[in-house]
Amino acid sequence: MSTQGKSAVSTAEAPAAIGPYSQAIRVGDLLFTSGQIGLDPKSGQMVPGGVAEQTERVLKNLQAVLAAAGLDLTHVAKSTIYLKSMGDFATVNEVYGRFFASGGAVPPARSTVAVAGLPKDALVEIEAVARG
């Protein structure tokens, strides 16, 4: 679907949108992803465990959306992390670092924000802007 130079990106390898939004939108050579939470795309349920397990699933979901657009994590220029608790920052940072610091790639710019709540009572949500 293309409207005014933007097109939706979608994949069954990441959770389906749970509202009136797209998994990602491509505008020119930029890709704007919607926030990903720790939903298993096959079951539609939150992954068991805590913030580390949710962060890993979030980043795998993000990788799947990027792959559907022909991109990968090295194309991410900016990410935003939403945390239910800033007490989880170190754990999320460690998991995030494993995904983004591999292979000598330049990690993206990033913001981290504490929020009062997230969909499905998630502990972490991550969105990204990629170029490619």
Fraction of helical residues: 10-25%
Structural class: alpha+beta
Low-confidence segments, given as residue ranges, are none
Report how far apart the termini are: 19 Å
The main β sheet shows up as:
7 strands, mixed
Number of domains: 1
**CATH hierarchy, class:** Alpha Beta
Number of strands: 7
Task: Estimate what percentage of residues fall within beta strands.
Answer: 25-35%
H/E element sequence: EEEEHEHEE
Radius of gyration: 14 Å
CATH architecture title: 2-Layer Sandwich
Number of helical segments with 4 or more residues: 2
CATH superfamily: RutC-like
Q: Which sequence of strands runs across the widest sheet?
A: 1-2-3-4-7-5-6
What does it look like?
Helix content is 23%, strand content 27%. The protein is an alpha+beta fold and 132 residues long. It has a single domain, classed as 60s Ribosomal Protein L30, Chain: A (2-Layer Sandwich), CATH 3.30.1330.40. The protein has a 7-stranded mixed beta sheet, covered by helices on one side. It is globular.
Summarize the structure.
This protein has helices at about 50-70, 90-100, and strands at about 1-5, 5-10, 25, 30-35, 75-85, 110-115, 125-130. It is an alpha+beta fold. It has 2 helices and 7 strands; from the N terminus they run ββββαβαββ.
Please give a handful of descriptors for the protein shown.
132 residues, alpha+beta, seven-stranded mixed β-sheet, 60s Ribosomal Protein L30, Chain: A, 7 strands, 2 helices, 23% helix
Topology:
Elements: E1 2-3, E2 6-9, E3 24-27, E4 30-33, H1 51-68, E5 76-83, H2 89-100, E6 109-114, E7 124-131
Parallel strand pairs: 5-6
Antiparallel strand pairs: 1-2, 2-3, 3-4, 4-7, 5-7
